[in-house]
Structure formats: C-alpha cells, structure tokens
Specification:
This protein is α/β, with parallel strands linked by helices. The protein has one domain (5-189): 3-Layer(aba) Sandwich (Pyruvate-ferredoxin Oxidoreductase, domain 3), CATH 3.40.920.10. It has helices spanning 17-30, 78-84, 104-107, 117-122, 132-139, 145-156, 165-172, 178-189, and strands at residues 5-12, 34-40, 49-57, 70-75, 88-97, 126-130. It has a six-stranded mixed beta sheet with strand order 2-3-1-4-5-6, with helices on both faces. Helix 1 crosses helix 7, helix 5 (132-139) packs across helix 6 and helix 7 crosses helix 8. GO terms for molecular function: indolepyruvate ferredoxin oxidoreductase activity.
C-alpha cells in the first residue's frame, strides 16, 4: 500500500488554482517529498473548469489521480465540487470554498445554479466549508482567495509545519503581494 497522498484542486478559470498548486508543490518539494503535478486548463479563459492534481510521497510515479483515489478534494467554487466528487476516496476530505461563479448556461437562464450542493456533500463526506472570498475582501484583495484556500488545505492535511510556508510564498508570488498573501495563508489555516 502506497503512502503517497493525492490532492485534486478544482475550480473555474481565473481563480488562481495554478498558483495555489505551485505554492503547494513547491512547499512539498522543500519538505523533501517526491512531488508530481498535472494541470488541465480546459476553457479557463471563458470561466471553464480548471483542475490540478498534486501527488506527493516518498516516490511518486505518475501525476494522475484516478477516480476514487483523491485523499483531498479542494474546491475553489461550489458547483465544481460536485463535478469532481467521484475522484475522492470514501474516507477522503473535501475542503470547499463556498463561492459561486455562474456558468454561461446559468447566466443565460437556460439552467439554474444547483441548490443544496454544500449540504449534500457535507452529509456524505468529511467536509470543511468556508467563505474565502469574504475573508479575502476583509484582507483588502479578493485575489488572495486562492492562498486562503491553500492555508485551509495545509491545516486540514496537517502540513502547516512541514516547511516554512511563508518562505514558499516569498518564492512563488510577486514581491508586492508577499505580505498580503502571508496574511491570507494564516487566515486560511485559521478556518480549519
């Protein structure tokens, strides 16, 4: 049985999922893990689905997570959680940002945004839900929402102390955004 851990991050283009995965992968590499990452942009420019898969452990042979293999599903957008739920293990953990980005069919009125997603998933799996967008607005920059989600993920997986995550932030984000992203990381950790 492998001691590797599998994290699937999902959301919508423009939410900073790729940067979030880069922060996560960089920190895990610094902590001494073998790390593999893959990303699927889809129609990201048009608000389409974006996923990244991060696998880490002593030795990881492939970056791909199969259905039913994710230890953690990290969702940046509520509806996307449902789309990727089949990838999580029955004993897995969902870390969910309660945030809605209506798709084109919803915006045109062709369909309604699904109701009860959070309640449905919370009734089936271990779930941590928080409102990263509101927290990011309180910090003064809504674009820090992704780093808040990373902070929550690190705490949920008990990874907050494996490496100095503030140093990882300093290496992965633009210099003028370092301080606010460090605050965002800490705020995310406080949500779990």
């Amino acid at each position: 049985m492998s001691d590797n851990k599998n994290i699937l991050l999902c959301g919508v283009g423009g939410q900073g999922i790729i940067l979030a995965s880069k922060i996560l992968a960089t920190g895990l590499i610094k902590a001494g893990y073998d790390v593999k990452m893959s990303e699927v942009h889809g129609m990201a420019q048009r608000g389409g689905s974006v996923t990244t898969q991060v696998r880490y452990g002593e030795k990881v042979h492939s970056p791909i997570i199969g259905k039913g293999q994710a230890d953690v599903l990290v969702s940046f957008e509520t509806m996307e959680t449902s789309r990727w739920l089949e990838y999580i293990k029955p004993e897995g953990h969902v870390v969910m940002n309660a945030y809605q980005i209506p798709s084109a069919p919803i915006l045109t009125g062709a369909v309604n945004y699904p109701k009860g997603v959070i309640e449905d998933i919370s009734g089936k799996l271990k779930t941590t839900v928080f409102k990263a967008a509101e927290l990011a607005e309180e910090l003064g920059n809504v674009k820090t929402m992704n780093v808040i989600v990373v902070g929550a993920l690190l705490k949920a997986m008990d990874l907050q102390d494996v490496v100095n995550w503030e140093e990882v932030i300093k290496e992965t984000v633009k210099e003028k955004f370092i301080d606010i992203n460090i605050k965002a990381l800490k705020l995310g950790m406080a949500q779990v």
